[in-house]
Design goal:
Shape: elongated
Number of helices: 4
Order of helices and strands: EEEHHHH
Strand content: 5-15%
Radius of gyration: 21 Å
Distance between the termini: 46 Å
Helix content: 40-55%
Oligomer: single chain
Strand order of the largest sheet: 1-2-3
Structural class: alpha+beta
Largest sheet: 3 strands, antiparallel
């Protein structure tokens, strides 16, 4: 739903979009607001809807797994190098899971590989990364 942008205190804002939705399995409603400087005459509705869908698609596929399963949001470190390295390690965990799993879910796979990661190390050394 489009909301009047004139009261918005952001320079250059043409359109404010208000989205109200309820996630699957949740009882409460969530309000989300999106702003854009796209002109109303340039087909902004279609473009903006695609951008919103793409954003939440990424959130659902990658970020949710990193947040909920690998507990990325619980990181208390503030050193940028350490945070960056932890992010890369979490991405590798998800990559290995997607390429080595049988019929296991990610939490069970992570728990099994925390105890012994020898087969992952062997898999890395045998894998041809250039192809």
């Amino acid at each position: 739903m489009e909301v009047e942008a004139s009261g918005c205190d952001f320079p250059g804002v043409e359109v404010v979009i208000w989205e109200r939705r309820r996630s699957v399995g949740k009882r409460k409603w969530e309000n989300r607001y999106f702003i854009t400087s796209l002109d109303r005459k340039t087909g902004w509705k279609t473009r903006f809807a695609r951008v919103i869908r793409d954003h939440w698609g990424i959130e659902s596929r990658l970020h949710w797994r990193k947040d909920a399963i690998l507990r990325e949001d619980d990181t208390r470190c503030r050193d940028p190098w350490t945070v960056s390295n932890l992010m890369l390690l979490r991405n590798l965990v998800i990559h290995f899971y997607e390429h080595t799993r049988k019929e296991e879910n990610l939490p069970a796979w992570v728990q099994a590989n925390q105890r012994s990661n020898r087969h992952l190390c062997r898999w890395i050394t045998r894998k041809s990364w250039g192809k």
